[in-house]
Amino acid sequence: MSTSNRYDEDFKRTLVELYHNGKTQAALIREYGVSQTALSRWIKQYSTVRTEDGEVLTAKQVKDLQKRMAQLEEENQILKKAIAIFTPRSNND
């Protein structure tokens, strides 16, 4: 494959799997003609993490979950401030 071709998901995942099974990045680059930048990006994107409950997530999914968690934490802080503003205070405070 030449570097001008677009690579499909299966090809990318296969290279990442080969990397995790012991092939070096240099060997994969030489053998498949991909760039170092592309291979590194695919390794980050398609490497997996196993959660405590056995679920397998890709690095991209973990990153998406982290972004969503940050968004929810921000929304939670806004709601806490709104409650503090709109909750009447008793005279005993």
Note the main attributes of this structure:
Arc Repressor Mutant, subunit A, 6% strand, 2 strands, 93 residues
What's the number of domains? 1
CATH fold naming: Arc Repressor Mutant, subunit A
| Overall morphology | elongated
Q: How many extended strands?
A: 2
Pick out the low-confidence regions.
Answer: none
Distance between the amino and carboxyl termini: 73 Å
Q: Describe the sheet with the most strands.
A: 2 strands, antiparallel
Helicity, in percent? 55-70%
Mean pLDDT: 89
Q: Which CATH-level-2 architecture?
A: Orthogonal Bundle
Provide a quick synopsis of the model.
This protein is mainly α.
Description:
This protein has one domain: Arc Repressor Mutant, subunit A, CATH 1.10.10. The protein has a two-stranded antiparallel sheet with strand order 1-2. The model has no long low-confidence stretch (mean pLDDT 89). With 93 residues, it is mainly alpha-helical. Helix 1 (9-20) packs across helix 3. It has helices at 9-20, 25-32, 36-46, 59-86; strands at 48-50, 56-58. Helices cover 63% and strands 6% of the residues. Strand 1 and strand 2 form a beta hairpin.
Q: Helices, strands, pairings?
A:
Blueprint: H1 9-20, H2 25-32, H3 36-46, E1 48-50, E2 56-58, H4 59-86
Antiparallel strand pairs: 1-2
